[in-house]
Structure formats: C-alpha cells, structure tokens
C-alpha cells in the first residue's frame, strides 16, 4: 500500500531517540534527498550525519523480498500457516510459556501494540520482551519507583533553558547528536550555561563541558549519594518541596550519609579530584535550574536502577523538577523505545502503563481486549528469555526488527541457543543479519519510508513516521504480519484493523480507560482521531487529554506525582560496585556507539560516507596500557575472556582512564570475524530491571 505520494513528505527519522523530523524529497519511487523538518520540535531543522544520509541507505543488496522457509521462498499463506501451526502445537503440548516474542525499539507503536495484545491477551504469556531492555529498562524502574509511573518529567527545551546541565554516562555528541547541537547553540548564546560531563572517558561531548569528571566506572550512585549528603550539610535542600510533595527523605539521606559521609569520601569512591568534585557539588547546590541527563552509562549496569534513583533523589531534595530548565532527564537510545514502553512491550509491563503488580489492571485490560487467555504474571526479560531458549524451555521465538545474535550479552551463547531452538521466526527488512541466518522462517517487513505509524521520542513526543513508498517485493508491515498470524491462530476477529489508525485509536482508548491521572501515559483525547488527522498528526507530547488537548510540555508542575498519594518517593540507595572486578592482569572493557553507525550496521553500514568516519573495529587504549601490554598503535590486538575474543586495531587514547579500554558495539560477524564486542560481555543484569552490564567487562588484552 502506498499511503502518501507527493514530492516532499514530512516524516520522522528512524534511528535514535531524539526523534527528529525529516523532510524527504521523493522522485520516481525513491527518496532523493532529506533535510531537517523546520517545524519539528525535536530538531527544528537540524539533522545529524546519520539522519542526513537516510536516502543513501535506502537500497540494500540484502533486502528481503519474500518469505523464506528453510531457505526457500514461499508465499505468505504458507509461511504464516507454517509458523502458526508450529506455535499452536508447541503451546498445546508445553503451554504458552514455551513461546516468546522479542521485539525492537525500531518498531512503530502500532506494531508493538498488536504484538503485545496477541501475546499477553490471546496466546496467554508475557514472554514478550524487546531490545529496549538493553537500553533504558533501568530508567523505567527508577521512574516508577520515584514518580509512580514511567515518565520523563521535562522536554528538550529544558536542556537549553537550564543554567547547569549535567550529563551522566552520555556521549551525547555521538549518540544524540541533534540534542548536542541544540545544547551547543544554547551555550554559544548563553556562555554562562554550565555543562558538566560525568564519564570515565573523555568523549567528544566533553568539547562542550566546563568540567569533565572522569569518575571511576560504575560509581555514579556514590557520586549522587555524596551529593545528597552535601546538599543537606550545606542547607541547600528545598524543605517545603520535600515536606509538601515527597516521602522517604530521611531514610534516603540516612542511607546516603552512612555510605558517603563526606565530600572526601565521595571523591575517594569515585576516584575524582576533591576540589573539582566540590566545585560541581557547589554548582548543583547554588543553581536553581539544573537538568541532569542520564543515558546508557547509568542504565547499562548491574545497579542501573539505583543509580537512576540516586540521581533523582538529588532533584527531589532540591525541588529541581517540574519547572522550566529543572529536571532529571533520561534520554533513550532508539526512535520508539518510549512508544514500546507505552504499549507495555516489556515482559514486566502489561499495557498502557498498567502492570502485573495490580490485579485490577489485569482485569481491566482483559475486559478491554476481550482476551480469552490473559497472561497473569510477568514474563521473562531478554537475558532470561534467551537462557530459557538455551535450556529448551522456550521452544519457539519470533524476533522482530532486531539482531540479538549480536547485541545481547554473551552473544555467542545466544547464537548457539537459537541454533538448537525448535522454531525461530525472524521478521526484518534485511535477510542476512546474524539472527536471520539462524531462522527457520524469515518474513520480509517494510522499513522507513514504506511503513506508516507513530513513534515516541525521549521527550514524550509522538510523531508520525510516514509511509510514502510502495513496499518492495512481497514485504508487509509488521502490524499486518502479526494480525494475519493472529488470524491463523484463530483470533482474527480481534485483530481486524483496516488501517494503522484503527490500532492507534484502540491504543489511545486503552490509555484513558479508568485512568484518573495516576498512570502517567494518557492520550485519551486522540482516541477518536480520524485518518487524515492521524496521517498528519503534528508532533505532540503526552499526556494528551481533554484537560491538555495540545499535549503537555512538563510533568509535575503542580508538585503532584503519579503515586496513589500524589507524592514522589525518595529511594534509599546503597551504592554498589560493578558485578565483576578485573583481575590484576585484566582491563575493563567499555562498549558504546560511534558517531556514524547505528546498531549492527545493517543499514548505516551500506553507506560509504558513514563508513568513512570509522571503517573497522578498534580498541581505545590509554598510552600507559599500550606500554604495559606491549601493544603498538595501528596494529591489531585481542581482547579476551573465558567465553570469546574480540579483534580490533589499537588506538592510542589519552581519553581513556588507565586500566580501561573502549570498543564500538556495532561490528558483527558479517563485517569482521570475531569482532562482536557483546560476545565478551557477561550476562550480569540489574536485579530490578534486567538490564545487562554492558559498560564493565573484565578482559585480557594482548597483541595480535
Ligand atoms: Fe536521526 Fe537521531 Fe540523528 Fe536526529 S539525532 S537525525 S533522530 S539519528
């Protein structure tokens, strides 16, 4: 279906969680150029190099054009019939928990919604998780603990309007480049805007920083526990805000004080210079408008939830929330990580910010969906899901628009688990990802410029990603594939949607159902949207309700939170070290993004311009470690542990702390044999969020 055909189309970028508006120029069924959409609130005309290359990554020689069963092309009816018969047989013999879906923050909200509904309401298991587990699952739990619901309080303007911007575990210049450009512009116009970067590495983002604090990896919660204690000692608390709008302050302060009783103690834990630390603590205490941005450096940790709450505690203690330029601010990795959270596409969520911890929520969703087989307990989170596949407990898995054979920790083990799984279905636009190669059934899905639906970015802003080109070959939209599969399982009556807007309306109606303002996410005012309004939806920040029909820029402006009593919760934090300490002959491997690549490079790896920035796997090594381990800059080196090896070219990098190396996360077996960084990462996870510790893997390093 070609939804829209015109010379220029306003749509949304398909890469990162900034969610930039893109104006695409189309000719002869091809995107010939792109530019930033001037009116989109996320980017106001800007694009980064990935976004501005969207048209150059359209044509992939590996594009999947027809369903493939055991490597042979088949028609859709045969493909989905085969998948449904196998699913049904496995469910009948082993129960619904023997099947699973693994989704992606690259899916649109409508795709996510029907997948979640099918699994949790009709198949009858909550074994549906997503690669967003690897990205922001810890922030979700931290938000829920502090605010009563998973909600980012502020909007991007707050990063420009603040007087002190603290970036924690965020290389924004590479991972969220357009927000970085906005902050750079704000600082140019207002040099008094102070920027502090907390990161073990001196990243490109530090170009903008007044102060870079290269804290010891994993010590973020010590830093914020120390700050909470400091704020109390300096009489810099907002006592009225704490009294009127929060609970649990005394316990949180006691925990922080017991562990980090002084500024010197904080400096010692974090490995920082005490004077520099004092300066930043004083800035936080003395600045009314502070925004603290946190990203993967906080979340990808075996104690990521606690780190998030330690940070939020400091904002609550000083009332720096719910006002322009004042907020704790989680920025997500993927374009629709937040949309996935809204529909409930994580194994520990239910739907529309309702959860398995509330029987009323389960009954409410069950009735709304008219669900015959409602899942009544949480499912398995990503790492546990693939462990259950390895153990043979999950016998069929459907992986949509993601590449877990490369991106999950202990990725080699994941590949082996998939090799012996009874049924692996992959739906994707590319047919030769490392995961697709292991599938029995591969289904061709539409991609950016072909698929049509909504995404939600890091500031709660819902935008339309437009479909304006015809689907190539036999590719179909993910939501259509899922609905047809549901029909083959006998649930077609509940999955008959003439158009994406019908799914969106149902999703919006569910978000408002019995929602008295405590669930955070609510777009009830969009539940009757017509197709033309939907196709041309102007970007809008939720909640979108009858009281706020134009959306909501900031949450908690009245000091009321989404908890039953309306008060925010302080969480007492016992800061923890990373799960594994390096042995004397090891270094700590940190993984992350480079500027011009996205995920496992299935799209960005096809553009020469994007490969021009960095064209091979590398290892950033401190000069002293180059000496210590006998390495030579420009030569290959091997990182290793008991489970795998990673080969990369040595780069001398004074930006590293001694004893720590950095490697890019993008390369995989398709591009470079044995340079898959996540093969080495241990499957240690945060006990609350299930998010893996990608930032702290002890490894040996040797010359090749
Ligand atoms: Fe796309 Fe993110 Fe770049 Fe914006 S910042 S153009 S959303 S990749």
Automatic annotation (TrEMBL):
Domain annotation 4Fe-4S Mo/W bis-MGD-type: ranges: 6-62
Keyword 4Fe-4S set for record: yes
Domain of life: Bacteria
Cofactor: Mo-bis(molybdopterin guanine dinucleotide); [4Fe-4S] cluster
Annotated keywords: 4Fe-4S, Iron, Iron-sulfur, Metal-binding, Molybdenum, Nitrate assimilation, Oxidoreductase
Segments forming a coiled coil: none
Record-stated family: Belongs to the prokaryotic molybdopterin-containing oxidoreductase family. NasA/NapA/NarB subfamily.
Protein name, per record: Nitrate reductase
Organism: Gilvimarinus algae
């Amino acid at each position: 279906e070609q939804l829209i055909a015109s010379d220029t189309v306003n749509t949304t970028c398909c890469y990162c969680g900034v969610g930039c508006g893109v104006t695409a120029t189309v000719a002869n069924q091809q995107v010939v150029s792109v530019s930033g959409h001037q009116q989109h609130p996320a980017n106001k005309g800007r694009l980064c190099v990935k976004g501005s290359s969207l048209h150059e990554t359209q044509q992939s020689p590996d594009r999947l054009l027809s369903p493939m069963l055991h490597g042979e092309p088949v028609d859709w009816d045969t493909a989905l019939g085969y998948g449904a018969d196998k699913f049904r047989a496995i469910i009948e013999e082993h129960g619904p928990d023997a099947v699973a879906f693994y989704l992606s923050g690259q899916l649109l909200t409508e795709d996510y919604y029907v997948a979640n509904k099918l699994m949790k309401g009709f198949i009858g298991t909550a074994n549906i998780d997503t690669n967003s587990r690897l990205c922001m699952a810890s922030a979700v739990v931290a938000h829920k603990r502090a605010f009563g619901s998973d909600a980012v309080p502020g909007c991007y303007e707050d990063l420009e309007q603040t007087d002190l911007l603290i970036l924690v575990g965020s290389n924004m210049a590479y991972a969220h480049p357009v927000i970085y450009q906005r902050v750079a512009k704000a600082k140019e116009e207002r040099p008094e805007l102070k920027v502090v970067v907390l990161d073990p590495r001196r990243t490109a983002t530090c170009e903008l920083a007044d102060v870079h604090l290269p804290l010891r990896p994993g010590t973020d919660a010590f830093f914020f526990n120390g700050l909470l204690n400091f704020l109390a000692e300096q009489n810099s608390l907002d006592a009225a805000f704490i009294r009127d709008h929060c609970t649990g302050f005394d316990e949180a302060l006691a925990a922080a004080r017991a562990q980090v009783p002084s500024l010197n103690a904080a400096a010692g834990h974090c490995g920082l210079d005490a004077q520099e630390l004092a300066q930043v603590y004083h800035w936080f205490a003395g600045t009314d408008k502070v925004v603290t941005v946190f990203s993967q450096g906080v979340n990808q940790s075996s104690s990521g939830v606690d780190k998030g709450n330690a940070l939020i505690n400091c904002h609550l203690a000083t009332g720096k929330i719910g006002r322009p330029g004042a907020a704790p601010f989680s920025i997500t990795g993927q374009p629709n990580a937040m949309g996935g959270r809204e529909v409930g596409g994580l194994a520990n969520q239910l739907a529309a910010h309702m959860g398995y911890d509330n029987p009323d929520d389960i009954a409410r969703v069950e009735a709304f969906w008219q669900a015959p087989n409602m899942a009544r307990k949480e499912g398995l989170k990503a790492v546990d899901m693939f462990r259950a596949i390895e153990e043979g407990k999950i016998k069929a898995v459907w992986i949509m628009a993601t590449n877990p054979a490369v991106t999950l920790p202990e990725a080699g083990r994941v590949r082996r688990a998939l090799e012996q799984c009874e049924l692996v279905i992959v739906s994707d636009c590319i047919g030769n990802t490392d995961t697709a190669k292991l599938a029995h059934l591969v289904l061709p899905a539409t991609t950016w410029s072909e698929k049509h639906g909504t995404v939600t970015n890091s500031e709660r802003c819902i935008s339309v990603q437009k479909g304006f080109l015809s689907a190539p070959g036999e590719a179909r939209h993910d939501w259509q594939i899922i609905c047809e599969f549901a029909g083959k399982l006998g649930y077609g009556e509940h999955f008959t949607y003439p158009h994406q807007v019908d799914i969106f309306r149902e999703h919006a109606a569910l978000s408002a159902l019995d929602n008295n303002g405590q669930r955070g996410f609510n777009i009830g005012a969009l539940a009757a949207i017509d197709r033309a309004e939907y196709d041309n939806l102007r970007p809008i920040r939720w909640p979108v309700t009858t009281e706020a029909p134009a959306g909501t820029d900031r949450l908690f402006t009245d000091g009321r939170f989404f908890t039953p009593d309306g008060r925010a919760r302080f969480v007492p934090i016992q800061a923890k070290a990373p799960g594994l300490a390096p042995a004397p002959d090891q270094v700590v491997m940190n993984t992350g993004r480079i500027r011009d690549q996205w995920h496992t490079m299935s799209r960005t790896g096809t553009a020469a311009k994007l490969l021009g920035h960095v064209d091979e796997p590398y290892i950033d090594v401190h000069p002293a470690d180059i000496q210590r381990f006998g390495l030579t800059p420009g030569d290959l080196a091997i990182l290793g542990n008991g489970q795998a090896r990673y080969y990369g070219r040595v780069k001398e990098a004074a930006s590293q702390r001694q004893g720590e190396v950095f490697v890019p996360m993008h390369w995989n077996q398709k591009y470079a044999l044995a340079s898959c960084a996540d093969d080495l990462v241990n499957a240690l996870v945060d006990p609350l969020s299930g998010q893996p510790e990608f930032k702290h893997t002890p490894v040996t390093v040797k010359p090749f």
